[in-house]
Amino acid sequence: MILRILLTVLFGVALLTPLVAQPQQSSITNEVDLKKYFEPKSITRLEWELVTFNIRWQNAFRFDADYIDSHPVVFDAQKLRFHGRFRVAEKRYFNDPYPFFELPRFRREAILEGGVSHLKTILGQHFPELLVNPSLLYVEFQFVSSGGGSSVIARYDGGMLKLSE
């Protein structure tokens, strides 16, 4: 019985050895094609922190929660500030009885300020300077109509939220 098990294992190893020992042609081709992506590349700490943040930030908001959907944050090197964007939906779900633009102004402002507040909290963990310097963050809230057009309905700039009405 033990001899049969040993022979089965040895036979299996003998069959697999050529597969392991010789790289397949497609692996060699893939290695050549992808070689440039394995070269080291230096990035700034700001770039690294921003990538790390955006991984956590992805899908932090969704329409069905509170009308807004978060998008990646970028750094505007010319203005030396972070630029965030939210997409605003008219409805949280297809038969929502409370369309965003029919909500009272204070409720719409609260929804948008909640998005900015959450963004500042998470982004501030990576860039604490943001929490004390409101000029480091610029945010746009963009509404995309069902016809495909879009418009900026609000901006957060210099610590102030301004609706475009």
Q: Can you give a write-up of this model?
A:
The protein is of the alpha+beta class and 165 residues long. The chain is 42% helix and 21% strand. It has five helices and six strands. The chain has helices at 2-21, 25-34, 45-57, 63-66, 105-126; strands at residues 68-70, 74-76, 81-88, 137-144, 150-157, 160-163. Strands 1, 2, 3, 4, 5 and 6 form a six-stranded mixed sheet that branches. β5 and β6 (160-163) form a beta hairpin. α3 packs across α5 (105-126). The longest helix is centred in the last third of the chain and has 22 residues, at 105-126. Residues 1-17 have low confidence and may be disordered.
State the gist of this model.
Helix content is 42%, strand content 21%.
Keywords:
165 residues, alpha+beta, 6-stranded mixed beta sheet, 5 helices, globular, disordered N terminus
Write the layout of secondary structure elements.
Blueprint: H1 2-21, H2 25-34, H3 45-57, H4 63-66, E1 68-70, E2 74-76, E3 81-88, H5 105-126, E4 137-144, E5 150-157, E6 160-163
Parallel strand pairs: 3-4
Antiparallel strand pairs: 1-3, 2-3, 4-5, 5-6
